[in-house]
Amino acid sequence: MTLDRRHFLACGLAAFASCAPLRAQERKRIAAVDWAAAESLQALGLPPMAVSDTRYFNLRMPRALPAQTQDIGPFWEINLELLDRLRPEVIFVGAPSLFMTPRLAEIAPVETVAEVTGEHSYERAAAILRQCAHAAAVADSAADAVLADIERRMAQLAARVNRDRPVCVLLPDQGGRRAMIYGRNSVPDAVLTRLGLTNAWQGPTNASGFFQTGLDALMALEDAVFVQIEIPTLSLQTEKALSESALWHRLPPVRKKRVVRIGQFYPFGGCLTTLHLAETLTAALAKPGSTP
Amino acid sequence: MTTVLAAAPRPLAGTVWTILLGLAATILSLQGLAGRPDPAVLFYSLLPRIVAALVAGFALGLSGAVFQRAFSNPLAEPGLLGISGGVMLALAASLIFAPALWTHGYQLVALGGAGLALAVVLAVAWGPRLSSPVLVLAGVMANLYCAAAYAVLVLFNHDFLVNLLAWQAGSLQQSGWAPSLRLIAEVTAATAILLLLERPLRLLSLGDGGAASLGLSVRRIKLMLLVAASVLAAVVTAEFGQIGFIGLAAPALARSLWRQAQPGLLRAAITGALLLLFTDQLMRLLSLVAGDLPVGAAAGLLTGPLLIVLARRNRSQSEAAPTPSPSLSPGRQARGPVLIAALALALIAVFLFGLFYGRGPEGFGFATAADLDIALKWRLPPLLGASGAGFCLALAGLILQRLLRNPLASPDVLGVSHGAGFAMALAFLVLPDSGLGAKLVITTFGAGAALLLVAGFGRRLQFEPTRMLLIGTGLGSTANALLVLALASGGQRGAALLGWFSGITGGIDLASALAACTVGGLCLIATLFYARPIDLIALGNPAASSLGVPIGRTRLAGLGLAALATAAGTVVVGPMSFIGLMVPHFTLLLGFRKTASAAIAGGLIGALMMAASEWLGRVLAWPWPLSPGLIAALIGGPWFLWQLRRGGREF
Fold first, then answer.
1. A241 CA to chain B: closest CA distance, Å?
2. With an 8 Å Cβ cutoff, are A177 and B175 in contact?
3. What distance in Å separates the CA atoms of residue B629 and residue B614, rounded to the nearest whole number?
4. What is the ipTM, given to two decimal places?
5. A18 to chain B nearest CA, in Å?
6. CA distance readout (Å), B640 to B32, B124, B141, B292
7. What is the distance between the alpha carbons of residues B347 and B409, in angstroms, rounded to a whole number?
8. Whole-structure pTM value
């Protein structure tokens, strides 16, 4: 089912991108260290020729990279010699990469992507998409078309989503004792707001919008639906730990079986991640488990 | 031994202080219970958390007390012998490679890891008497090895990153009774065994020779003690992650409270229980605003200053601790100049090979005329920087080990690397856009500040070796705790920070590489200038002062040099202690005994090792780079342990 949605998403956006066809020789040679930029380029129909940590990107992001995409190492230590040999014309990075390997700037002009901070995490995705279009020398209309398509689908999802209850997006740890909650200013929070949902967690968060806490802090969220993030490699351990966790079973949403699951996502992702997250959230909340 | 007899026991004062600590912990606990929490939260979270803190603290305090007494070393703790490191590595590896094993019995995995670490360490130190210095040195090396392998696992498995980091930080957050009850059963069994062994342990404190003359099989008793104490540390780590420094601080606090050189095991255990409860409850209060603060990291935060206080106050007892001498038997008298020339040639050969032979999209090959500029542009600065950093760190370790007359002294143990690393982490989180020049200044400032602190406290103590190490460890633990907290909450920056701490070299430009080499060269010249006084101090204070060596001043100058060299090395390859700890022992093994020739040879060995590691790191996991620090640890560690085993037997 997830695959179908993903397929649909990919085809739809590719169709849009083909409105502004670009022949291979006109394309800029772009390397993306930052994944939000990489997926924005994908959305524009211009997948970058080199991406950091491609294996994990394909595991975690909504759309897989073309097979010939070159892996250039992890984002905190790019293989500079390899990247230089690939002769990129522009490199998209997040601030941490540039701090770790400032010599990236010697290879090609560097475009720094905004970090997830403050209240503009939804607008950030659009800003990154426009930044990518600009740096890739495609017409702004291409970015506008992609954004309009995403907004149209967001509106459809917002009209359809089950808004009965506030939602708490959380990732339990493998000990079954703590959870990472996505609160104010996080990407999931921005998606919830866009869909017209209420984030059940209105408590404190760190700079990236996360809050790591014991399960006791969740006791107060009596009306909420828990959206539990499942990381495939860890789900076995997490399930076992949760099944043995006495407090987990006494949390009101768990007791009333208001727990739904979604797959993993990249919490610093761009426009494809937000749309994909909106789709999985809408689908998950529509399941019978989510109604009391 | 005289101090044991001289120090009058003051049980009353100790009891009063312990009760006060207990009261403070109780008030904090009651504060949590008084807030009329939800019954489920009260019963499944707050109460088990109190029990968990008490049991874990009890186990760690007891384990630490046993280790410290068995080795007559106030720095001994379960972490010191590689136990916690082995447990963490085994758990992480099973989580990644055999999740089913982890799911069905992580306790067994943890015990297996602890057993393996202990077995390796014991195999290295196995001799007629299980000599303490060799054992401790082997433990430190095993620990560094585990830490390096753990870092590789985490860096190559993002999926697990957050989980592994949170776990490393050690949280006592509870959601049921199962872990606490399991721990109570395990700890009760191990405690019973240890209490039965308390009397033989007391005799051990007379010194290995004294105990043997009383007809005790020293080796067998030490072995039983170590196994039981290691089990304690392993089961706590398996349930709650790494909670360091309770094992170090609780016995020290008990010693200080009761004014006894060797407080009873139970006293140390109870002190540990109360200390951990107090710390954890404090964290619980803070977590209401800041999110779950892992008590393991916080314990390091609080016990750091505590260790410094203890080091300054405990004059009487720390003199009783023996200062072990270097434990590798020196090699045959070296033909120094020939060997140094050979090392220099080897360094040049490795350097040139690393520069021109590499791996690219087409596989291995020599750089051709066409891509020579790319090879020089990207390979020269890291190679030069790594070599220079290796030189600096080896020199710093050599100076520290000689001045402090302790084979464990290294930039890391003295907290200098951590000072540098902490300053760097702070800059990273607060001023992410600062340039490389600023990075260098900030890191040097951090190393300098840490060293000033150590030196400031140390001056009044005449730079007495054991207490200097205690102060350094305290500073190191505090900086490390802040770092773990930053890592556990850092998201993307956390991974970047972890990369930097594992010692990546991709960020080096030619200027900072040359800076590291220049600092290394200048420090070598200064070391040669001070070589004779350092030689004499290494013989012992009375000998040195009778020959007219100004001990305080020489130590201050030497420590300043070590700080500078550490900062220069740390900026380039991260706060990695392996080279600084290992290379001085290599030089001794090669037969270099005089400081002057040992400094030159040590610097060259450090540079050689880092240059070779840098090349390996570039090609092993291509296109992913591996940090040369990790490679040096993973390859050098086993070799060093093997040498230690050969040399240690005759010790």
1. 8
2. yes
3. 8
4. 0.84
5. 32
6. 50, 10, 8, 40
7. 26
8. 0.85
